[in-house]
Amino acid sequence: MTGFLDNAEIEIPCPKCGKKSKQRLGRLNNNSSIRCGFCGTIIELKTDGPGGLAQAKKSAEKSLADLKRSLGKLGR
After folding, report:
1. What is the value of pTM for the model shown?
2. DSSP-derived secondary structure letter, 33
3. Are residues 56 and 5 in contact, defined by beta-carbon separation less than 8 angstroms?
4. pLDDT tens-digit profile of 1-40?
5. Interacting residues of 28 by C-beta distance below 8 A, sequence separation 6+
6. Of 26, 27, 30, 59, which shows the fewest CB atoms inside 10 Å?
């Protein structure tokens, strides 16, 4: 299932060189690690559990859906 945040980009800082790589959320759904585009370091991502990417994305999508419903009620 794809969400409407899949094309949103986030910046992920490299723990080695400190530079930030932009990544799309949809790409990160199935990848628990990425390679820094600057120094080549493998960056392990926390994807599950509290504070993980999946939970954060789900929470953001719920908040956006709630906002959309609230905005729809304004015109009534």
Report:
1. 0.61
2. E
3. no
4. 456 778 888 888 999 999 998 888 888 877 788 999 999 9
5. 10, 34, 45, 47, 53
6. 30
